[in-house]
Every structure is written in structure tokens, then in C-alpha cells.
Amino acid sequence: MNRLLQYLFQFLWRLWRRLLSLARRERYEREMEEEMGFHLEMQIEQNLASGMAAEEARYAAQRQFGNQAWLKEVSREMWSLNSIEALIQYLRYGARMLMKAPNYTLIAVLTLALGIGANTAIFSVVNALLLRPLPYHEAERLVMLAEKSHEGRRSFIAYPNFEDWRARAQSFIEMASIRTQRFNLTGVDKPVELRGRTVNWNFFQALGVHPQLGRSFTAADDRYGAARTALVSNGLWKERFGGDASVIGRKLLLDGELYEVIGVAPPGFEYFRADDVYVPIGLFLCPECGLTDRGSSLALYAVARLKPGVTLEQANGEMANLGAQLAQEYPATNSGKSAMAIRLQEVMSEEVRQSLWVLLGAVGFILLIACVNVANLSLVRAADRRKEIAVRLALGAGRGRIVRQLLSESLLLAGLGGVAGLLAGRWMLAGLLALAPENIPNLGRVGLNQTVLLFTFGVTMLTSVLSGLAPAWQAAHTELQTALKEGGRATGGAARAGLRQTLLVVEVGLALVLLVGAGLLARSMYNLLRVDPGFNPDNLLTLRLNLPPGSYTGLRRQVFYDECLARAAALPGVRAAALTYSLPIDGSNWNTWFIVADKPAPPRAELPNNAYIPASANYFETMGIRLAQGRLFTSADRAESAPVAIVNETLARRLWPGENPLGKRIKQGLPESLMPWREVVGVVNDVKLNGVERGTPLETYVPITQESPRSFSLAARTAGDPSAFTAAVERAIHSLDKNLPVSQVRTMDQLLSNALAQRRLSLVLLVSFAALALLLAAVGIYGVLAYSVRQRTQELGIRIALGASGGAVLRLILAQGLKLALAGVAIGLVAAFALTRLMKSLLFDVRPTDALTFGVIAVVLLCVALAACWIPARRATKVDPLIALRSE
Amino acid sequence: MTKVDILQGTLDMLVLKTLSNDPMHGFAIALRIRQITDEVIQIGEGSLYPALYRMEMKGWIKAEWGVTENNRRAKYYKLTRTGRKQLEGEVSTYNRLTEAIAKVLQTA
């Protein structure tokens, strides 16, 4: 081992020096001249000292010195020209050797390419989403601010609380709140819904982002009653204003109000996602609005920049103090609530982080398996060449030279593998990005950049060392005599066979771990797909409508609802249509606190929360939601009739365990709110509002005649593919109001699919990697066993000659292979047992140490191993004893 | 005395041995060897400098520009640790070889 490392270092050292000398050629030439000149002078001196005359001394010295030019040439050869030639010689030799064994080369390069490619692809994603700093100025100093519920969970901010924080906090130099808002853009050919954000004036400043055109907001823009201004995204600017600088000063009609465009965001700007328009939040701070209510729970968060020298812990501590202060000052709204500061990058990557690390681990395993396979391949090949190497050694080739050539071969192989891997990685990355869900922050930044290329290069070097080490080591230890005697077949060296077998066992173990991981994820997905969503998701078309603020007031809104439903239902092929505030699976709910009449109101911090869902009377029927108790809404439930509500089973069980919920009374909002008390008239089964992965929330439905939201969804049950009805339904809506944009048109199947998109991607990737690992392991087993059979030809010949049956020989070889596979499986099971707990958060309804999964995977792997052993075993039975004994 | 041709490996060994105590420049090395062997082994520049450059490339000796006693600039060569190890190895191999040859010559 020592010798091997020595050779390796010498080889690299010499390579390095030659490359260096190439660079410093000029200086070397000069120095050489000087050195020769000095030598000549000394010679002349000596000649003079021994009595020669001056002229004679010079002539004698020069004559003795010989042909200076020739000398220079020889010396030069030692450095510069030789360096390139040496390099080329190594590579040429390596290439020749590789071409002589095309099968080996192809398989090795392919194996390496897959391993390196997978690593490159996954690392690109990890780099862009987890490692690279966010595209803001000094992004590591940015934090997200949020409130903390009494259970310690992150929750929305009430704007008045934010204002107090802003006034009192000392840890930040900038603080800005952000809220999502959708705006109807009208006054254009096709009205459309824009995704927007309402932000404080210093939002862009806090991030350190400057508009590409125009200006950012000022404090004057951020007041209630100020002139309405807006900043548009770069994409919107190019799309609707043709990228023309004249956009500044133009007016946009958003939700029926005119906003002046004052600036354009830089290209590619994203904050968690790309938005179309940014508007000052101050414009919405009307005295009676939800925003200015300290008790409200609107989806508001804030971003802040730490002051220089302040740590995250200090900031977080200060926020907690502020939260406690406000809880004391405003017990009615704030009691039990606190505040927190989290690193922005952490929040942006929290959804994908776990999966990414698991995937990175998986491709790491794949790389190791690939290296093991290539190492084994190289070992087999080197063993085949033992005779050749031994002869060359006997003829006087330096051992170092042999090793050097082997190393250069593996370097070349790894280089080819690296280049092929880069291409494979690019292709894999494109596929990955195509399948990825859109809502992952910063996904657009994923690409093969410098860091990734450097990583790939490093990985390639690593693989070359790992996979080239073994054969080079073997070559360094080639015993001259035994090699020549045995004529090329290496039998001696239990150590050598042991190395190959150990590598194989490790390989199988790694493959098992990957397979178990994939199996667990697959089971989780299976469990998820079997979850009952609580409604019938087939052939359902959904879309969202936003009525402009202040429009369709009072009765006109009811008329609009009715007309909307009527026209939609009248379309041929539409079986039913209904309206609701919250669609299932979507997760965008109107969450409010609530209290019930027959129990005392709990303290503010412990108030229960429910999804408040205004829905049309036929909603339940249309969606296929089952009635468990009582009745559904009817046309009798109108604005002027008694306020009613329908709750879901979970709410009924939680609030009135063991009691009859019908007739109970429930009120939305804080205890002192002026919302009406509603009588519970029915109980329906649970609906998975927040997706199939999360639990069921408490749900309270109210008739849309009694609570009439401006923003709502239409759900239409169609005969046949719902997406075919999109145009017709849109036309129906526009026939009512041509200025009303129809947005978020999706089928329920799409919604369900999107909800699971990220999980599905991880599953697909992990299963692919596991399958790859299985394939590589199978190839590895086959290779090792095939080689072993070749080695034992003589022995097998003897056995058969002595009367062993084909079956016995078969069993012999199979046993050898299975022993290795079993060892690998055993190690793999232990490793998997230890490692799968790391992916706990990715699993659904299945334990990380689920025995069934482990067992099935082990059996599958053993079966595959058996299959891989079959061909070599069969070949063993076909050994002709006569030929086997004769050959040497 | 007649000049004797020596193999490249042996030349390397002699040069390394000469440098085993003090650093020297090329001319001094050749001179010293001539002196010690009573002019039997005369290393020409055509063999010496290629050998020196080769050994420098291998990392056995290190070169540094210095000043002679006569205040002239000359390139001094010094033995490295690797070189010292190499020297030990070559000396032991050479001794074994000569012993072996001597044995053969002794037997009738």
C-alpha cells in the first residue's frame, strides 16, 4: 500500500513538475546557459592553473565541453518538450489500452458516467437551493419575522403588532411586511388576475434590490390615502408594455382603481416566487379593515435585515421579548403569543431540504457503487494482464513505469467518465426540472454553473483514485515468479480475491439501503393515494373568481352567484355546478377563531381555529360530500332567515364529544366579535381541505346567501374530461361580466397531482437511483462470479471428471454467489436500520423500520442476485473436463 | 588512467553520494569524483548535466543559485530527503550486486 501511494505521488509530482517547467521554460533556458557558461569558465581556469596558455586553455576547455548545442538539446529534453510528450505518451498509451478492451471501456465509462451524472444533477439542485446565498444583498443577514402561537408554531403577523415591532426593535436596520394579494387587471383586452404583493415601502431596500427602471417606493407612497403607485415585475413589463421605458407613469387599472407605475423590478427577481406587481401595503390600512385590527389573522409576514454585529440568536431573543411585552399590553388579542426571527434562507428551503439531502446521500451511494464496479472490473482486467506485466517486468521495465501507465489509464477512464457524466448530468437535470413542481422557491436558479463544474471535476478525480487504486495496488505487488509460473491466471492471494469479494459485499449492502429507502417512499405514496379525500374528485373543473372591491353589492351579489351557477350548469356536459370559498386540497382557507355557546370561551391563546367556508346550497351534493347528520342547506336558508351552519365530523367530535351537535350554536371570530351566532343544522363527513398529507381541520360551512365573499371558486362536475370544458365555462362567466378575469382554472385531478408533485418527484428519483444501484450490483455479482468460474476452470474440470453432476456444480457456484449476496444483504439491513430514521419526515403512515418493506426488499435483492449468479453457474456446469485439465 | 564507462544508474548513485555531505555545483561534483577515483571516472558534461536535471525532476536533488568563493554566481545542488533514501537504496543494491558478482568470479 505504501509503495502504491509512493508511486501515485511520484507520478503526480513528476507530472506537476513537467507542467511547471513548461511554464517556466524561458527561465530554465537562461539558467542553463548561465550554468554552462560557469562550468566552462571554471574549466578554463583549471586549464590555466595547470599551465596552459590562455588561448590553449580556452580551446581545450571548449573541446572537452563538447558540442554545446547538443548538450543544450539533451538537457532541454529533460524539461520542456519532454513534459508535453510525456503527458501525450501516457495518454496515448492509456487510450490504446482502453481501445484494446472495448467492452471493458464501454461498461466502465457508462458506469462512471451514470454515477457522476447523477451526482452532478442532484448537486446542481442542492447548490442552487441550499448552498448558494439568496440573490439579495448580503442575504445571510436577512431574516423572516413571524408571530409564534402559544403552541410554538409559526403564525401570521397582525399588522399593528408589526408596527410596534418596527418602532421598538433594535436588532434590525430594515424591516418590511409582505402580504399576498391578487388583483384583477381590467381595462385591457383580456382581463386577467395578477399575482401581487402588498409591501412596505422599504421592502426592496431591505433586500438590497434596486429597480431596473424608475424608482422604488418612498414612505410617502406607503400611507393610507396616498396616491396609488405600483411597481411591476420585469416579466409583466416585457409582456404588457413591450419592455418600453415609457411604462413609467403609465396607469394600471387594478381591482377597479388606477395605479401609477413608478418602477420595474430587475429581471428574475423573486421573493419565494415570481409576482407580477408590487403595491404599498399602506394603501390598505383603512381604519376598519382587517389589516388594522390587532386581532386579525391575515396572511402577513415580514422580512428584516440584521444590524451589523447582531446575531440571529440576539434578534430572536429580542423578538421574543417584544412578543411578551405586547402580550402584556394587549391581553385580549396577544396573550399567549410571541414572536420569532428565522433565517430567510432556511425558510425558503424548508420544504425541499429534507428530500434533497436524502437524494444527495442516494447519489453518493450510487457513486460508490459505480466506483466499486469499475474497480472490480479493473481488477479483473489487471489480473488478466498479469502475465504480460510480469514479462515486461522481467525484461526490465521499471515497476514505477507500469504503475504509472495503469494510473494514467484509470485517469483517462475517469476523465472520459467525467465528460460523459457531465453530459448525462445535464440531461438528467433537464428531466428533473421538467418534472419539478413550480412552487419551489429559487428553482429558476438551478443550472450547471462554475461550482457544479468544480464539484464534478472533484468527483471525477475521486472516482479515478478510488477505482484506479485497486488495480494499481495489485500491479505493484505482482510477484514476478509466481505470475510467470501460473501463466497469467492469478489464484494465489486470498487477499486479492478477498478484496474483490469485500467490495462486492459493500456494493450489495449499499444497493440494499437505497432499495429500502425507495421502498419506504413508495409505500408512503401508496398510502397517500389511498387516503379518502372526503369528496369525489373525478371530472371536476375548478376556477377562481374575484369580484372587484365595492362591486356587486347586496342583492346583486346573490343574483350574480345564482346566474353564475345557472349558466355554468346549463352548459351541455356539465352535470352540476357549485360555489365555495375554499376548494378541497387547495389549502387556501379562510381561517377564523370560533366559540360555541354552551361552553365557556377559552383564553385567547387557546381559542380553537376553523376553516370558515361559505358555500352554495348544492355544494355538498355537487362535490359528493356525505351528510352524516341533520340536513344540508336549502333555498330556505337566505340572508334574512336564521343564521345556520354545517360542521364536519371532526369539529362535532372535538367540541361536543358524545353529544348531539344539532341545535348547538357557534360563532366565528373572537368572543367579543359581532358575528352572528349560528345554529348547527347538519354534520358532514371530513374533507381534506389542506391536502391528503395533512390532517383534517375543523370545518364550518355557511350558506353563501348569508356570508357572501367577493372571492370564491366555482366547481363544475363534468361528463368526461373537465379540461375540455374550460373555454365554455369561461365564456359563460364572461357572458355575465366580460371584465371579470377567470383565474386558476384547474381540474381537481391537477390539484391532487400538484399537491403531491414534489413527493412524486422524490419518489421517482429515489426509485430510479435504487433501480440503478440494483442493476450495478447485479452486474457486479455477475462479473465477480464469472471471473471466479474462469479461475476455477481446472478445479471444476477435476470435479466433473471425478463424477460431480451438473446440479452439484451449479449449486457450488450458486452457493458462492449467494453467500456474498447474503453477506451484503445482512450488512445492508443493519445500515438501513440505522439510516432510514433520517428520512422519517418524508414518510407517510409507515415506520422507518417497517419490517415488511425491509423483508420484501431483502428477498427481491436475493432473487436478483440469484439471477445474476445463474449464467456463470450454468457456464460452470458446461466445463469440459478434458479441455480444462489440459489448458494451463 | 583509462576512462571507464559507467551505467546511468551508477552515475546517479555517485553524484548523490558526492552531494551527501555538502551542496556543490556541477563543476565541483565532476571534479571531486575525478579526484577521488584518481581520474578513473571522468564524468563529461554531456552526462553530468542531463543526470543532474533528471534527478532534479525526480525530486532527489534540489537546485539553488548561490555564490562561489570567488564571488561568482553558480547553481548549487543539494540532496533532498527523498534523494537520501534513494541513495541508501541504490548503495545497498549495488553492494549486493558486487558481492554476487564477486562470488561468481571466485568460483573457478
Brief rundown of the structure:
The complex is a heterodimer of chains A (888) and B (108). Chain A has 888 residues and is α+β, with helices and mostly antiparallel strands.
What this model shows, in words?
By secondary structure, chain A is α+β, with helices and mostly antiparallel strands. Helix content of chain A is 54%, strand content 15%. Among the domains of chain A are: 2-87, no CATH class; 150-336, no CATH class; 549-739, no CATH class. Chain A has a six-stranded mixed beta barrel. Chain A has a six-stranded mixed β-barrel with strand order 14-15-20-17-19-18. Chain A has a four-stranded antiparallel β-sheet with strand order 13-21-12-22. In chain A, strand 3 and strand 4 form a beta hairpin. In chain A, helix 6 packs antiparallel against helix 15 (450-476). The model of chain A is unreliable at 487-494 (pLDDT under 50). With 108 residues, chain B is of the alpha+beta class. Chain B has one domain: Winged helix-like DNA-binding domain superfamily/Winged helix DNA-binding domain (Arc Repressor Mutant, subunit A, Orthogonal Bundle). Chain B has helices spanning 8-18, 26-36, 45-58, 81-106, and strands at 24-25, 61-67, 73-79. The longest helix of chain B is centred in the last third of the chain and has 26 residues, at 81-106. The model of chain B has no long low-confidence stretch (mean pLDDT 87). Classes of the chains: A alpha+beta (888), B alpha+beta (108).
